[in-house]
Amino acid sequence: MSKKTLQSKTVFHRTALAKKLAERVMTVSPGASANSGLFLSAPRRTGKSTFIREDLRPAIQATGATVIYADLWEDKQADPGKVIITAIRTELAKHDGVIKRLAQSAGMDKVSVGGMSFSLDRVGLNQGISISGALAALSDETQKPIALIIDEAQHAISTKDGNDTLFALKAARDEINSSLHFGLHIIATGSSQTKLAMLRNSKEQAFFGAFILPFPLLGQDYIDWFCAHQEFSAQLDPKAVMALFEEASFRPEILGAAAVKLKYDLELRDEDVATRFAEEVRHQIKLLNDALLGVVNSLTPIQYAVLKVMAETGSDYAPFEAATLQRYKAVLAERGAEDSVRADVTSVQQGLNALIEKSLVWKAARGVYALEDITIADVVIKP
What we know:
Elements: H1 3-10, H2 15-26, E1 38-41, H3 48-62, E2 66-71, H4 80-92, H5 96-105, H6 131-142, E3 146-151, H7 160-176, E4 184-190, H8 193-197, E5 211-214, H9 220-228, H10 238-247, H11 252-263, H12 273-297, H13 301-313, H14 322-334, H15 345-357, E6 361-363, E7 369-371, H16 375-380
Parallel strand pairs: 1-4, 1-5, 2-3, 3-4
Antiparallel strand pairs: 6-7
């Protein structure tokens, strides 16, 4: 089986959507806010990153652009700023002419590319060669526009280096989009529109004015493809599976896990396929929810109160305001917490730190907090 045939069975391609987005991203209208970049927002585990890697990146490359891709979620221990810079260095290393340009800009008249007498470690924050200078050299050498895709871009503002790298990219964008070069287009994706908005909502942010596009969730065409590629002896009904997909919050991995479970059920009868598939999808949903619920139920009273108030208030969450402190106290009373449990600034800060360690809460470098995953709200806020 060829690689292309295998991919057609394992990856659902959204070619038309990718082509349309690529054309829009790479064509910037004069004075448009798109000059600040395009942000794509979609809940986690709904197929966004697969689309970026398998469809959007090739579609942008097909326009003639050089594409650089950085996934800030791949290694959560790595500083996001370093991940972005490493991705840029990796692309620079593919072009001997760029290395020569950078070496000359660093004052080296003779360059041994093979011997790497010039190191790309000089490219970065406070390393001698700026990100702007490096990308400008890439643009001039290739005579092509550059598209930088940053997946889960909100993590960049969780560290100082990450935040500084975004501002360095802003400077690079402004320079390379001038008439002297061939253009830099930045596409940032994220699993939370609230977090992405922190990168563009004020003039103090690197990408002020960037447009946020809610990424279209997978729909009936995906379900048709999914059902057609299952190897059960009885065909699944696409309409029934679509209803299950909605129950699963449009997460492909849940359908996939259910399909694998049935694939290895050697006693499965044709007439039971539809019923068993529905049962297994709901079982997978329950497993995910129960796992999260187990973590939530293990929280201390103040940690739970902080998490619930954050879930209820969303983007308006202000952890230490007097009104918020009163809401914590109300939640503690509802939970029957002991009188010794305090809801003051110190205990709330400790609670926030613990929630960050448990990967339930995310913190930007400038002290703004948000839920790590929006699905947490569904578990914490119960009818």
